Amino acid sequence: MVKFSGETQGTYYAITYFEKKASNYQQQIDSLLHRFDSSASLWKPNSLLSKINNNDSTARTDETLEILFRKSMEISEQSNGAFDITVGPLVSAWGFGFSDRLKVDKHIVDSLLPLVNYKHLTLTNGRILKQDNRMRLDFNAIAQGYAVDLVAQFLESKKIKSYLVDIGGEVLAKGTKPDKTEWSVGIELPAASADDERQVKAIVSLHDKALSTSGNYRKYYEENGVRYSHTIDPSTGYPVKHSVLSVSVLASDCMTADACATVMMVKGLENSKPFLAAHPGLEAYFIYSDSTGAMQTWYTPGFGKLIKEEL
Length: 311
Prior knowledge:
By secondary structure, this protein is α+β, with helices and mostly antiparallel strands. The protein folds into two domains: 54-130, T-fold (Orthogonal Bundle), CATH 1.10.3980; 143-310, Roll (T-fold). The protein has nine helices and 15 strands. An eight-stranded antiparallel β-sheet has the order 1-2-5-6-9-12-13-14. It is globular.
């Protein structure tokens, strides 16, 4: 077993795999993740994405941005816009981006909503064209998942068939361990406050699947007794207000799982059920508050088969 961890994209990564020679590929994976950041990072001023957001006419997409863009457009269409990479200006206004939180009111939301529409983007000859230069692209709801997939592809290229890749809680597991047991992954119990100690709500067996969890219990702020979630509904411009505390999504690849977890956080439980029915292969596990404030769970039958233990 080879096991190592590090930092990337403002969070951690942890990788475990089995390999006969016990080769350590941490240096190569660090380089891969660094190159990924150079393309898709919102936080690096010289990244390719930052150049596109700053309307640099010389910026051309690389393979990473092209794949992220095309997958984002696909999920946006499938979700009727619940997933939208142009939501950045609203995320910033509500205080979840770089800048300080604005005193958000209906006037500010109404002024920013015209900048939020994935249909106003096109990819032509390696250039992402925006109908309005004030539009900002934000791949935060899909990039981490794709980074997991890229690390997995690297391990596959080294003929490694048994591994677990975890970047900031986005996870992909392949194969079984040498003793034929499957990988086990915990789903976090939604915390009452961002500083609460992490606890596990459920343990899932993972085999040739990706798992991504999106929640509103770590990233939020409170003002005048109201909690504002970091998940913004692109159709209204406001943070989502529904009973879902977290949703964990299973898919064959982590990029899809990551994006679809955001879709379902925006849609809420009831509106996610038709979305799940329309996309066989996706499974989901919801943790939500009922009308009395008690914590409840709902999950698809396929997800239920993988639950080893609920705590």
